[in-house]
Design goal:
The complex is a heterodimer of chains A (about 375) and B (about 375).
Chain A (H helix, E strand, L loop, with lengths): L2 H27 L7 E6 L9 H16 L3 E6 L6 H12 L4 E4 L7 H6 L4 E5 L8 E6 L1 H15 L4 E6 L4 H17 L4 E6 L6 H13 L4 E5 L4 H9 L3 E5 L10 E7 L2 H13 L6 E4 L6 E3 L8 H16 L9 E2 L5 E3 L7 H5 L8 E2 L5
Parallel strand pairs in A: 1-2, 1-3, 3-4, 4-5, 5-11, 6-7, 6-8, 7-15, 9-10
Antiparallel strand pairs in A: 10-12, 13-14
Helix pairs in contact in A: 2-9, 5-6, 5-10, 7-8
Chain B lengths: L1 E6 L5 H25 L4 H14 L3 H23 L8 H19 L7 H29 L3 H21 L11 H5 L15 E3 L5 E3 L1 H19 L1 H11 L1 H6 L4 H28 L9 H4 L1 H11 L4 H21 L6 H23 E6 L1 H6 L9
Antiparallel strand pairs in B: 1-4, 2-3
Helix pairs in contact in B: 1-2, 1-15, 2-3, 2-14, 3-8, 3-11, 3-13, 3-14, 4-5, 4-6, 4-11, 4-13, 5-6, 5-11, 8-9, 8-11, 8-14, 13-14, 14-15
Classes of the chains: A alpha/beta (about 375), B mainly alpha (about 375).
């Protein structure tokens, strides 16, 4: 036998052994279950993005802590819409996950939900409610408005920069709320926006922040998931308003505040309902009043006057959700969009496609 | 003592099989060290990986979702690279294929079950869209000697922005504009029912939906093999790939070949785009966090290289890499960071590609004394 044939034989043998070991392992290893209820969370970015996805993951850990061994939770991060989401759901369903929180709109389609009738889906920020699909979100525009007050009060010039993700109604209404808050504290101030076309892209967000600062912004805010904007603000020494999570550790000097979500209690209710068999599809819209949306603790840059103004508005919004969108409201061209005394409804907020007066940038991206 | 890598004078057939197997085994061993160092059990991780990719119920179904586009982009890269025309633009050509095929489906489609005519029109439209997009770098290369690597790559970004623009930033023909949902979040207009590509149900593993696109990829591979191995065109392409000077001397029309090869390559990627619309999304997916995040066009280059530009090998590799891709989603989770999945996938691909060097070349230890005397072999890689 030549050396080569020997080598070939050895390789075939190794491969065969590996295959057998694998096959045995597979049959032995599958279908392991300890009876715990399985719930999974799916994120658009990393679970520790310092923003949106991290807030959801804190909600997941809240559920895990509250229910202990009765529940088994996991998450899937950096999942793209479409093919990858479908693959992920298939693998979760095969592993016996019964409740899936899809934390971004565009994930759950009617066809996909119908394919897994034994799995219940919960989708954040969307509108599609089906037999096994619920939608949930919160009136972050109220708290974003309050964070805008902090930004406006801290501005020593006449422009605030706001880094925004996609040109969609959700982001447009938050931008508008932010601008209205800033204008309340600092009449006539402009909010300049730059779109990144991504929920999570630290490099693009940093570039956007850079260009906004270059265009004269002396305060930065954001409706994207990473704290890059804040890190940039810290490096040039200007104040920053975050979003989604308390991210003061990324920019301790620049930090003002942020509109944050408290997903945990909602998640706990839904997981409990699914465990007890009482889960029903629905549409939940959390508010300041029920503790779903909050403001993160203030940084040093928020002075007493601003805190008082925010506290006053907080009470107003607690009693009257969405009050910041009470007329008269004008769009960028100066056209009256909401007449005096009228307030936008949730469906109007969900389909908002115009920017308020004083915002510089296009609502079309 | 010095280590050199020199070209093999003869390439034994068995080497072509042994090298990839050893490379993958080697990669699994290296990745096992990484897994151990990060506190994971390599055996159970690998078991989960293979289980999720190929063995568990429904796994092949999901693997095919990634494998089908990879087969098309792999064939696209193989078709061009064989002639040393480096079309890096399969990504953008796939988008253009998707855009044009979606337009055809939306325009021609109607009610009822799958219509062969509409589906055929979508395939042709996809191929046309991809070929037209690839023709831009093709013409630039053929007539102005511009590097097709750069131009085709840059056009990927253009195609990506166009795709996003059509769904997110304009009220285009492709965008769903009626209904409340469409106002809240931009989506593509759904295809009429007879434009949806019917899967072929295989009664295995609890039912596998074999996408129509996978079948078309098989036919495309066959056609490509016949074209490159059995026709004068293919022969000339191979000669051009091996030596442009020799081909010219023999009277091969270089410009025409470059244009034809780019068009074929683009058409293949474009059909991949049509399959994205017809087989999977059933609408044009313009979300930057959707189709564009998958990078099928770029992965196709790896698929082609591992398949050594052989169309049938490309299909097999596409299936394996599709499995690896799909399994990554299963493996990651609260106790297994997605970055670690990427590291394992990277080690496997890197090792498999690196091993390819050993098929054509062999390492040799050269003693210092003999270096001065030995004249390097022609083609030796130092």
């Amino acid at each position: 036998m030549t050396k080569r044939k020997l080598a070939l034989g050895a390789i075939v043998l190794v491969a065969a052994v590996a295959a057998v070991a694998l096959a045995v392992g597979v049959t032995a290893g599958s279908a392991k279950s300890n009876g715990a209820f399985k719930a999974a969370w799916i994120y658009v970015g990393p679970y520790n993005d310092g923003g949106w996805s991290q807030a959801h993951d804190e909600g997941r850990l809240y559920v895990q802590k509250a229910l202990g061994k009765a529940v088994q939770t996991t998450y899937k991060e950096n999942i793209a819409v479409g093919a990858q989401f479908a693959q992920t759901v298939a693998s979760l369903a095969a592993q016996g996950y019964k409740l899936i929180f899809a934390t971004s709109y565009g994930y759950v389609t009617p066809q996909l939900a119908q394919k897994y009738p034994n799995v219940d889906f919960e989708q954040a920020t969307g509108t599609y409610v089906g037999k096994n699909v619920s939608e949930y979100f919160g009136a972050a525009e109220d708290t974003v408005f309050l964070s805008g007050i902090a930004a406006g009060a801290a501005a020593k010039c006449n422009t605030i920069g706001f880094v925004v993700a996609y040109p969609i109604p959700e982001v447009i209404r938050h931008t508008n709320a932010f601008a209205l808050g800033a204008q309340l504290a600092h009449p006539g101030i402009k909010v300049r926006i730059v779109w990144t076309n991504s929920w999570y892209d630290p490099a693009k967000e940093k570039k956007a922040a850079q260009s906004l600062h270059g265009a004269g912004a002396c305060v930065l805010g954001q409706n994207v998931d990473s704290p890059s904007t804040g890190e940039y603000a810290e490096s040039v020494g200007i104040p920053w308003v975050g979003y989604d999570s308390d991210a003061h550790q990324f920019a301790p000097k620049s930090w003002l505040t942020a509109s944050v979500y408290n997903w945990g209690p909602y998640y706990l209710r839904r997981v409990k309902a699914a465990m007890g068999g009482s889960w029903k599809p629905g549409f939940y819209y959390g508010t300041i009043a029920d503790g779903f949306t909050k403001l993160a603790p203030y940084g040093k840059g928020v002075d007493t006057k601003a805190r008082q103004l925010i506290a006053k508005q907080w009470m107003r919004l607690k009693k009257n959700r969405g009050a910041e969108f009470t007329g008269p409201l004008y769009d960028q061209s100066g056209k009256l969009r909401v007449p005096k005394g009228k307030k936008l409804t949730v469906s109007q907020l969900y389909s908002m496609n115009w920017l308020v007066k004083g915002v510089i940038g296009s609502p079309k991206g | 003592m010095r280590l050199t890598v020199e070209r093999r004078l003869e390439q034994p057939r068995w080497l072509g099989l042994v090298v990839p197997v050893v490379s993958v085994v080697f990669a699994l061993l290296v990745a096992a060290l990484v897994l151990l160092a990060t506190g994971h059990d390599p055996l159970s991780s690998y078991r989960q990986l293979f289980d999720a990719a190929f063995l568990s119920t429904g796994s092949i179904d999901q693997t095919l979702i990634a494998a089908t586009p990879l087969a098309f982009t792999g064939l696209a890269a193989a078709a061009a690279f064989r002639m040393r025309v480096f079309n890096i633009g399969a990504e953008g050509q796939l988008y253009l294929g998707a855009i044009v095929a979606a337009a055809a489906g939306l325009y021609l489609g109607g009610r009822g079950g799958a219509s062969p005519g509409v589906i055929a029109a979508m395939v042709v439209a996809g191929a046309g869209g991809g070929a037209a997009w690839a023709a831009i770098p093709g013409v630039l290369r053929a007539f102005f000697r511009t590097s097709e690597i750069l131009t085709s790559l840059m056009l990927n970004y253009v195609a990506g922005y166009l795709l996003t623009y059509l769904i997110f930033q304009s009220e285009s023909y492709w965008r769903q504009t009626t209904g409340f949902n469409a106002k809240v979040f931009p989506t593509g207009k759904p295809l009429p029912s007879n434009a949806v590509w019917p899967p072929w149900l295989l009664h295995a593993q609890g039912g596998i939906d074999l996408p129509l696109g996978a079948g078309i990829a098989l036919l495309a591979a066959l056609a490509l093999w016949v074209l490159y191995r059995r026709t004068r065109f293919g022969f000339e392409v191979q000669v051009l790939g091996d030596s442009e000077g020799a081909a010219r001397y023999a009277g091969v029309r270089t410009r025409r070949k470059i244009l034809a090869v780019m068009a074929i390559s683009g058409a293949l990627a474009g059909i991949g785009g049509a399959s994205q619309v017809g087989d999977f999304a059933h609408a044009l997916d313009g979300d930057p966090n959707g189709l564009q995040k998958q990078g099928y066009g770029y992965s196709g280059i790896v698929v082609a290289a591992l398949g050594r530009y052989n169309p049938f090998a490309v299909l097999l590799i596409a299936f394996l890499i599709g499995g690896l891709d799909n399994a990554g989603n299963t493996l990651q989770g609260a106790n297994f960071p997605s970055g670690l999945v990427g590291v394992i996938q990277g080690i496997i691909l890197f090792s498999a590609l690196g091993g390819e060097l050993l098929v054509r070349h062999r390492p040799r230890v050269v003693r210092r004394a003999s270096v001065a005397e030995a004249t390097p072999l022609p083609g030796a890689v130092q």
